[in-house]
């Protein structure tokens, strides 16, 4: 692991250094010789990195963990039963706010634990930790029972109030997409209230597109609510 960290640091330093010299050369502020020296230095550093070992993590890492390697402030991983209390607490915040879900009944840790067990490994749930505490989660679920839709999953993503705006939602959503793609899914879909502008913006940044709007899709507290349909193609779904 020491060799991997050193290799990554050296490679980044070489790339940044050569980029700066190149920009100055283009502007006429430095002679070609320093650029050649920088290129030679970069080549030497790359050779050293190759000798020290690979930069990326080992094969034991999950897709989510590999994706988060460059985000040291946040840690993402697959959820376990022990995460149920934190997941339930974050979900209940979303339920109370009335712009994230049609659900109105609060969830207990036991409810969440049972749901995680029922999904097993086929439909992953990921959590994001900040300072050792779970602050966000995203989960996939079945879309339709017909075999033709076996590679399509519905998803949800929730972020604790105290962690909004720090990238936890994006980390959860990106990690979930990586885990679903690794399991052979070709599409993620969801429905979002138009009032939930933060979620719509998050999904757009994460590569989702708006498909359309379901008008009066359901009632929440006696009021009709529309739903914006979003989707993202994964893996085989992106071919062609």
What does this structure look like?
The structure is a single chain. The chain has a 7-stranded mixed beta sheet with strand order 1-2-3-4-5-7-6. The two termini are 39 Å apart. The longest helix has 25 residues. Helices cover 42% and strands 24% of the residues. It is of the alpha+beta class and 240 residues long. It is globular and about 50 Å long. α1 runs antiparallel to α2 and α4 crosses α5.
Q: Summarize this, please?
A:
Helix 1 runs antiparallel to helix 2 (32-52) and helix 4 (84-97) crosses helix 5. This protein has helices at 2-26, 32-52, 63-67, 84-97, 109-119, 168-182, 197-205; strands spanning 74-78, 125-130, 133-142, 152-159, 187-192, 209-220, 223-233. A seven-stranded mixed sheet has the order 1-2-3-4-5-7-6.
């Amino acid at each position: 692991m020491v060799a991997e960290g050193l290799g990554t640091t050296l490679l980044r330093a070489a790339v940044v250094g050569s980029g700066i010299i190149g920009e100055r050369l283009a502007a006429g502020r430095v002679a070609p010789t320093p650029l050649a020296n920088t290129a030679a230095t970069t080549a030497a550093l790359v050779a050293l990195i190759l000798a020290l070992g690979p930069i990326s993590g080992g094969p034991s890492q999950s897709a989510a963990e590999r994706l988060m390697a460059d985000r040291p402030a946040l840690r993402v991983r697959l959820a376990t039963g022990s995460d149920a209390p934190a997941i339930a607490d974050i979900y209940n915040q979303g339920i109370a706010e009335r712009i994230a879900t049609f659900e109105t009944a609060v969830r207990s840790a036991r409810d969440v634990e049972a749901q995680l067990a029922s999904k097993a490994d086929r439909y992953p749930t990921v959590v994001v930790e900040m300072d050792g505490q779970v602050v966000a989660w995203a989960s996939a679920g079945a879309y339709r029972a017909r075999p033709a839709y076996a590679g399509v999953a519905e998803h949800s993503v929730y972020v604790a109030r105290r962690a909004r705006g720090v990238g936890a939602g994006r980390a959860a959503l990106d990690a979930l997409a990586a885990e679903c793609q690794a399991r052979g899914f070709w599409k993620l879909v969801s429905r979002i209230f138009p009032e939930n502008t933060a979620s719509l913006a998050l999904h757009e940044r994460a590569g989702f597109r708006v498909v359309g709007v379901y008008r009066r899709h359901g009632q929440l507290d006696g009021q009709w609510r529309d739903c914006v349909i979003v989707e993202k193609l994964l893996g085989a779904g992106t071919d062609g």
